[in-house]
Amino acid sequence: PRALSSVVALGANIICNKIPGLAPRQRALCQSRPDAIIIIGEGAQLGINECQFQFRYSRWNCSTLGERTVFGQELRVGNREAAFTYAVVAAGVAHAVTKACSQGHLSQCGCDHEKQGFHHYHQEGWKWGGCSANVRYGVEFSRRFVDAREIKKNARRLMNLHNNAAGRKILEERMKLECKCHGVSGSCTTRTCWVTLPKFREIGRLLKERYSAAVQVEPVRASRLRQPSFLRLKGARGYQKPADTDLVYLERSPSYCKEDAATGSTGTRGRRCDSNSTLTDGCGAMCCGRGFDAHRYTRIWQCNCKFHWCCFVQCSTCSEKSEVFTCK
Ligand SMILES: *[C@@H]1O[C@H](CO)[C@@H](O)[C@H](O)[C@H]1NC(C)=O
Ligand SMILES: *[C@@H]1O[C@H](CO)[C@@H](O)[C@H](O)[C@H]1NC(C)=O
């Protein structure tokens, strides 16, 4: 609401023309729904933040060389990392829009009004109540807005659309039912239930799993048309399509060891690493064998604080020598 009034004050035209990298249909949607564009921006940021969290211990840390857009940096190569980024941003937008609807922050949506009152599918003493999150609205809004940036008719478009849809599908599958019991001393003679959004962290974790299991695909051109019309699993016999919730990629990923503008890799120079870990955050893997620098410092803090009657607190000073390591 704070942001909304400032948007309306500024005028939808000015705002929508100032946002870099919007496709024509996105700009049109922005102008007709200026209140939603703020929520869309927040949703995209939610996705990008989650991406950085999930990849904080990996060589690729969700930063990419390239132009910044509303959806983070542009990813030129259609690899696994691009697949994750598209899925998490599409899910982030759907999550943010659904949440805004439930909170009454968007003018054209609210709680899911189909989930109100008694429902014939459920047993006696069971009814919908409270505010059920309208995830269908959020998903549809994300589809209309996020997918509208895919204007080139190529294989990459098919890849991006598939990953956008997979991210939203995973969100939809994780919607939760919450219930409250009513009746004498908690006897639960009647139950009121409503649908809630999962925490976005859970979606991030699931998408990270899908990222690890991502499948390579290739475009298939229908005979008479030049444009690729669908994707199939690479190397599979026949036309086996990926599953709805698979993340798909067209190209292999680089090692992300060195900076490389062609792949968008920032490299790992200067990244922090753990000298004891043998996992991806260990200096061996993170620094790709180039070695690392140690920085020693002393950490000082207040400790052993005691409350004295009355009324002051006395603390001692503690210190600890510490070391951090960064890749050469
Ligand atoms: C990711 O790594 C790059 C290159 O080392 C660094 O510049 C950037 O700040 C890191 N980003 C995050 C979000 O940690
Ligand atoms: C790494 O291991 C050394 C010795 O085994 C230990 O002294 C040090 O505290 C460990 N460092 C970290 C960051 O866990």
Describe the structure.
InterPro entries: Wnt, Wnt7, Wnt_C, Wnt_CS. This is Protein Wnt. GO terms for molecular function: cytokine activity; frizzled binding. By secondary structure, this protein is of the alpha+beta class. The chain has 9 helices and 14 strands. It has helices at about 1-10, 10-20, 25-30, 35-55, 80-100, 135-145, 155-175, 200-210, 285, and strands at about 70, 70-75, 115-120, 125-130, 175-180, 190-195, 215-220, 230-235, 250, 260, 265, 270-275, 290-310, 310-325. The chain is globular and about 60 Å long. About 35% of the residues are buried. The mean pLDDT is about 90. The structure holds 2-acetamido-2-deoxy-beta-D-glucopyranose (NAG) (2 copies). One 2-acetamido-2-deoxy-beta-D-glucopyranose binds near residues 274 and 276. One 2-acetamido-2-deoxy-beta-D-glucopyranose binds near residues 61, 63, 266, 268 and 270.
Describe the secondary-structure layout.
Elements: H1 2-10, H2 12-18, H3 24-32, H4 34-54, E1 68-69, E2 72-73, H5 80-102, E3 117-118, E4 126-128, H6 135-146, H7 155-173, E5 176-182, E6 190-196, H8 200-212, E7 215-221, E8 228-233, E9 248-249, E10 259-260, E11 265-266, E12 272-273, H9 283-286, E13 292-308, E14 312-327
Parallel strand pairs: 4-6, 7-9
Antiparallel strand pairs: 1-2, 3-4, 5-6, 7-8, 10-11, 12-14, 13-14
Helix pairs in contact: 1-2, 2-3, 3-4, 4-5, 4-8, 5-6, 5-7, 5-8, 6-7
Bound molecules: 2-acetamido-2-deoxy-beta-D-glucopyranose (2 copies).
